[in-house]
Structure formats: structure tokens, C-alpha cells
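For reference, the entry.
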Amino acid sequence: MESAYDAVVVGSGFGGGVSACRMAEQGLRVCVLERGRRFGPGDFPDRPAQAPLAFWHPRLNPGGMLDLRLMKDLAVITGVGVGGGSLVYANVQLRAPASVFDEASWPAAITRAELDPYYDRTEEALEPRETPPTPALPKIHAFDDMGRRAGRTATRLPIAVHFGESRRHPFSGVFQQGCQNLGRCDLGCPVLAKNTVDITYMARAETHGAEVYPLHEVQRIDPPADTGGRWRVGFRDLQYRTTGTVEAPLLVLAAGTIGSSRLLLKNRGRLPRLSRALGSRFSGNGDALALALNPGAPGVTGARTEYGPTMTSRLDYADEFGFMVADGGLPANFGFVLEIVRGVSALTGWGRVVLYVKNAATKLGLTDTHVTHRNVKLRQEPIGDSLVFLMIGRDAADGQIRLTPLFRCFDIRWRKAGSAKLFGDMERVAGELARAADATSFFALDAGPLGKFITVHPLGGCPMSDDPAAGVTDDHGRVHGYAGLHVLDGSIVPTALGVNPAKTIAALAERGVERLLAERGP
């Protein structure tokens, strides 16, 4: 690593990948710092015994791919590694409804019409497609039949998956095989059929000279001493247990909603002009998980949810209730995950006790603690014939990210009261779908052994706004009060989106980095 670059990017998910790629294409010397490892096709867990090792910890397990953090009011799961959350997401590439951007929290310039060209631009790399009709997938037919029995029509989701023969990806040149319907999208695809950020944007950035440093966790940010000077970024090398610094006149924070918000809060003493809105507008994007257990209706049985892409279809309730219901799935030998969600005793051993102690400690302000492989020992359970629903809606986005008063730990205050109608409608619809499937309904926001709300789509914390008093960045992700500092990830999204957020995060990054490059000039 050199001591200085034209730009430093923190994080390599949808925001960081887009930013690094577009800057490198324009000839900037770009350094990308990523706290996770680089994953290859054979590095993802495929057996339950390997599942606990998927949990990331900076010292105990820096090679993990899932970061599960316990806060006082909720838990958050995010992806870790070169490619960020794209490694473990379900590939869904939906544009946010136009009505989302009518909410007052968005800057005036951000509309659906404004974002559409940038949504289009992301598709060159991510290539969203609908699941093809052949081979026929029982899960699709079961979901469709359940929907019809409930008076709804299911539609196919656009997913960033390559279907077809092996090829070199046209955007990056990386070799990938076609989808083999392994149901492993959320665990890492061993044939690289997913058009993830690491094999698209990041790979293209590297062909243009960007340098990517995995296992480098950023901890400190120092602003330039003079106008036009360099930002200094302090990091910890998790592999060699050393520390270092790197400098650049441009600093792009793209460590995700949790990572970027944490960095700015922890470094607020060195950045006193940061908006008082830092930490506001947190949203779990209305995440909820529901199950239709043991369906018996004709056409709905035998769904084989382990066969096919993890998500293929949705029922859209946006106009009536502000949410959608997508199908889900897991490999057959990972059925224990559903048992954990239901609160069934799938966790065993001494680690379970430690996990409960950690959870109890969050009530005292000892938050932001990791769930590690030492806390998780699992009983294997079959997935059975259950239908899995991921429900995503437009919650109130009224959570607050902060540092706890006594221990100065990163925390998120969140209450479901402000979104009670949304979650009530979700529970009612989940029940209707289960009845249509002649199944037993399961829906609980505070499910699992910890009894906490869990989100996999955190948004906000560094919200964009035209008014510096109401937001951390402007509509292009430029941090108010600090030239050369940008945030381009899910943390700048000021409201829930009601759909999977990846495509909107990438589009906002495309728009933000376009302005960054235009202002920099040739």
C-alpha cells in the first residue's frame, strides 16, 4: 500500500464498488479498504457444521461473512467481505416506487425520474433477469397458486443472476457459471452465478488500477489541516494485527449503514462540523419474516424451496399497505435457520448461555457486541415443506443511532410503535396467505432465541437532506461542512424504500460519484 492516493474508499459493497469502479475508470488512483476477506467459489459454507464460522469477528474470526450485532432494541445482520452485502443477498434488483421519493425527508432533486437513468446504469454490471420458465421450479408454482387462492397475482422478481452457459462476465471479464438452482444465494454462490459486486464493479475497478485491501478495518478519520488537503484514514490490519494510515484528498465512506454511521459517530470529536442529524432516520426497511408451515392446499404442497434461486417472485401490496411479500428458500440442510427464527431450541452448548448474557448486557448499555462462532452450536433440522416469506415495507424510519451515555458503545434505539400499522397489516396478510395455503401461520417481529427485531436491510444514520440541520449529506452524498468527504451507501437513504434496497443504493452511488468526478474535472 502506498502512503497516498487520489481517493480512498471505505467498504466494497454496492456503494463502495460503484464509487471505486467509476473513479478508477477515470484514471484516479483508488485505494479500497475492506474489513472482510476476499471470497472465492469454494470459500462459502455448504454444511451446517461450517455455519458458525460464517460469523465475522475482527479478532476471533476475521474471515467470516456475516456480521451479527446485538443492540439494545434490535439486532442487525450485514454482509462482510469484498463485495459487501452482495455476497449474501438474494439478488433482488427492484426500483423504489415513485411515491417513496415524495416523502418530505428526501432532497428535492431526488425523484424517481431523476434516479431512473442511474438505475439503468447499474444494470450494465448487475444484469437483472427474471427466473426463466425452464426448468420448472416447484417453489414458483406453489407461490403462484397460493397467491391465486388468496386473490393475488404473483410476479417474477428481477434478480442479478446469470442463467445460461458459463461465460466471461461482459462488464468485468470474470469467469462465472450459470445458475444451478442450488438455493444458496444467501450463503454465497459457489458457481459465481450471482452478479455480485466483487465480480462486477470491484473486478472492473481493479482492471483500471484500483488497489483493494481486504481485512483492513478503518477506525480513525482525520480531516485535512488546510482547504484542499488530504484526509488521513487510520486502519487496523486484521490479518497481521498491525495498524497504519493512508491519505487522499477524496474520502468516500461506503461501509454501509452501520459501518459509516459508526465511523462518523466515533470520530465526531475530530469532525465537529458534522450535522446534528447524524444517527437519525434509521430504518429496518420494514423487514419481517413469516412462514406458512406444512401447507396442505392442492398446488401449494411440495414447494421444494431449497431448489432454485433464493427469491424468485413477489406479491405486491404496496398500493394498499406499503409492503411486498417475496418468496424465500434455504438449502435443505440449513433448515435449522427456520427453527432458530421460530425460537425452537436449535442452539445448544455453553455458547448459548454466553449469547444470552451478551443480550442481557445490551440492556445496560454494553451494545454493539458480536455474535461469534463460539456462541453458535446447532442442531440440524430438516426444512420440511414450509413456505418462507420475506416481507419488506415502508416503516417510519424513526430510529436513532447513537453512542450509549456511559460506555460510549454504538447503539440503535428503535421502537415498533411508530410502524405498528405496517407490521399489523403484514401479520394479517401473512395469516391470509397461510390460510390460502391451508398452512399454519408464523409471524413474529421479536422472534428467535433473543426475542429481538432483526433487520438485514438497515438504512439511514447519515441521511441526505437539502438542509444541513436535517441531514448529514446533500443529495449527492457530499457531507455538509466537509469538502472532499462523501458518504455513498445505505446510510444516506432517509426513508424506508419498501423494496430490497440494493438497486437504489447503487443508483445513488452512481449519481453521487458522477458529480464527484465532474467537480474534480479532467
Q: What stands out?
A: The radius of gyration is 22 Å. The mean pLDDT is 93.
